[in-house]
Amino acid sequence: MPKLFFASAILAYLLLSFAAPAQEPVLAPEPQGAIATLKQKAESGDARAEVKLGVAYASGDGAPADAQEAVRWFQKAADQGDAAGEYSLSELYLTGRGVNADFTQGLKWLRKSAEHGDPRGEFNLAALYEQGQGVPKDEKEAAKWARRAADQGLAAGQFALGSMYAHGRGVPQSEAEAAVWYGRAADQGDAPSMNNLAVLLSTSSDGKLRNPNEAILFALKAVAAEPDNPAYLDTLATTYYEAGQPDKAVEAERRALALSPEKASYKQALEKYEAAGAKH
User: Fold this and answer.
1) How many CB atoms neighbour CB 243 within 10 A?
2) Do the Cβ atoms of 4 and 199 come closer than 8 Å?
3) What phi, psi does 5 have (nearest 5°)?
4) Nearest residue to 123 (alpha-carbon basis) of 17, 30, 4
5) pLDDT, tens digit, for every residue of 205-249?
6) How far apart are CA 268 and CA 256, in angstroms?
7) CA distance 89 to 47
8) Eight-state DSSP code of residue 152
9) pLDDT for 277
10) Helix (H, G, I), strand (E, B) or coil at 277
């Protein structure tokens, strides 16, 4: 049976790009001449302009790529208590871009951004608490911050909260609640959530939740998003098998095994599906 992704996938989300400040769309390259206007606003102390100017320098969109200038403008915004500025500054400290890597400073600004409501800061703080990185491992605290990010519509936060409910970490175990949060993230195109939701819908012992045919749809979407991910193909095989389609399960499992030929669980699953197909 496929395993629900949890810790490894949460870590894969760690440090969501600063290129999309909280509560704002991804910034497009600044039109010719617009950077001068933006710089004027930033120099006058407009925190949002400071963040946008920092993003321009960090990404090279609309301004020459200059990580040190990005740090300078993010710092100005952060010093005013701007959550997006705080988050962006934390990322540069944690990754050592434009400044010497400094986990203590990175964590300081990450926490401030979370406390001021940046969903990326909330999610990343949750991930640190779940893993015990730089802070004491605390699953309840992780769930608290993941919920805040999830409530703001951040797919990574919704995935994390769904995983916590699925595994009973920091919250009471509940497949139904897990499915709700995975579903919200899946609606945003989040492939790990699609995969985990497919696992739950196809294997749950809860008759109200179990729906192998619907599970197939989510598994197909996850595979379409990442066609070379053997774990997603393994999940697809499970959904077909649970829906009474062993021949399609065999086909999907063979694809998973071709990508990961040493995986013993895939070999065992293939034998199981082939035997079921012979009887079908």
Assistant:
1) 17
2) yes
3) -70, 140
4) 17
5) 999 999 999 999 999 999 999 999 999 999 999 999 999 999 999
6) 12
7) 13
8) T
9) 81
10) helix
Q: How far apart are CA 242 and CA 237, in angstroms?
A: 9
Q: Which residues contact 44 (CB under 8 A, 6 or more apart)?
A: none
Locate 221 and state its tokens: 């979407």
Tokens of 255: 């694809």
Beta strand ranges found along 125-206 (DSSP E):
none
Residue given tokens 């993003």 in the structure block: 55
Nearest to 181 by CA among 203, 166, 191: 166
Cα 2 to Cα 221: distance, rounded to the nearest angstrom: 16
Closest CA to 3 of 240, 242, 167: 167
Distance CA 47, CA 76 (A): 7
8 A C-beta contact, residue 105 and residue 93: yes
Q: Can you spell out the DSSP letters for 22-43?
A: TTSPPPPPPPTTHHHHHHHHHH
CA distance 249 to 254: 8
Measured between alpha carbons, how far is residue 13 from residues 10, 41, 55, 72, 225 in Å? 5, 33, 20, 26, 16
- Kindly report the pTM of this predicted structure: 0.87
For residue 104, give the DSSP letter: H
Give the model's pLDDT for residue 2.
65
- Please tell me the distance from the alpha carbon of residue 12 to that of residue 19, in angstroms, as a whole number: 17
Residue type, position 150, single letter: A
